[in-house]
Amino acid sequence: MTGLGDPGSVSALGGTLRQQALTLADLVVDLTDAAERGRRRSHPDLSARERQLLERLARELDVVGAALQSFTATVHAGSARTRALADEAARVDLVLDGNLVVEARGPSRVDPAERLQARERLQELLNRVTAAEGKDLARVARELARSGPALARLSERARLGS
What is the rounded distance in angstroms from the CA atom of residue 102 to the CA atom of residue 7? Predict the structure, then answer.
């Protein structure tokens, strides 16, 4: 898992963000109920701004948390697929070296044409795994780039009371 840490921690962070989003959503419901009770008694709604801020914050946390969890699932699936590809490669005297399928050291008893064909096929499959992980990692990066400024604006609004 390149760039984001270990998958367990990333998944836990995503889950924590999503749980906090649910907690905030529950708080919005409680505040909405209280505001509705107040309106029935002709009291002004004093929590509308806070509810709006909490709703937006909950959405941001949920989106980022979901992206992190999706990325972790992709990495786990990719790891399992890579292990299967490594086993298949070993059967034809090939090895996975990072993102490349290469010939194993030493002599081989496998027909060179068969080995070349297997290498090309396995490389294509390994490229698909790498592409899926890259696509999800780019999604996480986009969500973080979008969410950071949005969260900063929400924080500023909360501090200023606007």
Answer: 27
| Total number of domains in the chain | 1
Count, residues in the chain = 162
Q: What is the pLDDT of residues 97-123, one digit of tens each?
A: 999 999 999 999 999 999 999 999 999
Kindly state the tokens that stand for 34.
């209280």
Tokens of 117: 């064909």
Beta strands in the chain (DSSP E): 94-97, 100-103
| pTM score above 0.90 | no
Is residue 126 assigned to a domain?
Answer: yes
Residue type, position 36, single letter: E
Per-residue pLDDT tens digits for 39-56: 999 998 888 999 999 999
Structural domain contains residue 86: yes
Phi, psi dihedrals of residue 94, rounded to the nearest 5°: -120, 160
CA 136 to chain centroid: 7
Taking the C-alpha atoms of residue 111 and residue 17, their distance in angstroms, rounded to an integer, is: 53
